[in-house]
């Protein structure tokens, strides 16, 4: 396996765990992209929860705790070595605990769909840069924060990505450290405010089987929402670990928590995923 392929394989694990802000904890494209004909698919389940005034009511009773389970399928396919096609589908089931009647559900069903295209701008011996554009649809689910406003309508996003190996870029390296960063503008065509999103990742590859990640994920509102639309800011920290279980798949476990925010209640999440590359 060549030097660049080794680096991209490690970075792909990091990219699949990168979040997309507070409402969806989601995968995003990697700065290193995909080679021609190379495919990557991730199956992931998150359990998110929060408490407080923004937890929506259920059957007339205020919820003391709001919880959501998300199941996501995310995929990438390399077209010609410079372009990568990206797709994502999310299914959500949301409900409450404590005050609401047992088994009460607010939302359940297909919640989000996204397609995008990434163009590789640079791929050097130690670093890579890319530009990613996407369009998506949200199907009227409530976020864990944002005053209980529905998260619905069409979105479009443009995202700049950069990644760099700090240690272990040479061929055959059994350990390494890398960083990755992303900045995005998301145009929301519904009532919600447009957003600026910024993510940063510090990753460590340990041997041929293990990878660990520490991340900071932020969403900042531009405060141009229509009446009743979402308007919130949040900073989330996330830690995760992945282990390769077969030649082409790995298991990932992680935890995330909101540490700063405006217009949202603090939430946390645990997640598990299976990543495959072929």
Describe, in plain words, how this protein is organized in 3D.
By secondary structure, this protein is mainly beta. The protein is 5% helix and 60% strand. The protein is built from one helix and twelve strands; from the N terminus they run αββββββββββββ. The chain has one helix at 3-17; strands spanning 39-51, 65-78, 83-97, 105-123, 127-141, 151-167, 175-188, 195-206, 210-221, 233-244, 249-262, 267-277. A twelve-stranded antiparallel beta barrel has the order 1-2-3-4-5-6-7-8-9-10-11-12. A hairpin with a 7-residue loop joins strand 3 and strand 4 (105-123). The longest helix is centred in the N-terminal third of the chain and has 15 residues, at 3-17. The two termini are 14 Å apart. The relative contact order is 0.19. Residues 1-27 and 53-63 have low confidence and may be disordered.
Name some characteristics of this structure.
mainly beta, 1 helix, globular, disordered N terminus
Which helices and strands, and how do they pair?
Elements: H1 3-17, E1 39-51, E2 65-78, E3 83-97, E4 105-123, E5 127-141, E6 151-167, E7 175-188, E8 195-206, E9 210-221, E10 233-244, E11 249-262, E12 267-277
Antiparallel strand pairs: 1-2, 1-12, 2-3, 3-4, 4-5, 5-6, 6-7, 7-8, 8-9, 9-10, 10-11, 11-12
**Share of residues in strands:** over 45%
Compute the number of helices.
1
Helix content: under 10%
Query: What structural class should be given to the helix and strand makeup?
Result: mainly beta
The radius of gyration computed from the alpha-carbon positions, rounded to a whole number of angstroms, is 19 Å
Strand order of the largest sheet: 1-2-3-4-5-6-7-8-9-10-11-12
Helix-strand sequence: HEEEEEEEEEEEE
Distance between the termini: 14 Å
Low-confidence stretches: 1-27, 53-63
Mean pLDDT equals: 80
Q: How many runs of DSSP E, i.e. beta strands?
A: 12
Query: Biggest β-sheet, characterized?
Result: 12 strands, antiparallel, barrel
The coarse silhouette is globular
């Amino acid at each position: 396996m060549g030097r660049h392929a080794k680096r991209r394989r490690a970075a792909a694990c990091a990219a699949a765990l990168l979040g997309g802000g507070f409402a969806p904890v989601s995968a995003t494209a990697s700065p290193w992209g995909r080679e021609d004909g190379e495919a990557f698919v991730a199956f992931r389940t998150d359990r998110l929860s929060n408490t407080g005034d923004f937890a929506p009511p259920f059957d007339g009773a205020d919820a003391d705790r709001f919880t959501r389970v998300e199941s996501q399928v995310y995929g990438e396919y390399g077209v010609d070595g410079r372009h990568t096609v990206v797709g994502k589908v999310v299914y959500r089931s949301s409900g409450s605990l404590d005050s609401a009647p047992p088994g009460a559900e607010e939302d359940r069903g297909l919640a989000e769909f996204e397609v995008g295209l990434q163009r590789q701008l640079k791929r050097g011996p130690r670093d890579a840069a890319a530009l990613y554009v996407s369009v998506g649809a949200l199907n009227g689910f409530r976020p864990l924060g944002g005053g209980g406003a529905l998260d619905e309508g069409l979105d479009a996003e443009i995202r700049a990505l950069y990644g760099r190996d700090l240690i272990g870029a040479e061929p055959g390296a059994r350990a390494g450290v890398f960083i990755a960063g992303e900045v995005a503008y998301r145009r929301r065509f519904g009532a919600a405010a447009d957003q600026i999103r910024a993510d940063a990742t510090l990753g460590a590859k340990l041997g041929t089987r293990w990878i660990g990640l520490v991340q900071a994920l932020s969403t900042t509102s531009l405060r141009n929402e229509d009446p009743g639309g979402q308007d919130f800011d949040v900073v989330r920290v996330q830690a995760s670990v992945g282990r390769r279980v077969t030649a082409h798949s790995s298991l990932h476990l992680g935890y995330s928590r909101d540490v700063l925010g405006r217009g949202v209640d603090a939430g946390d999440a645990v997640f598990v995923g299976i990543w495959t590359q072929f």
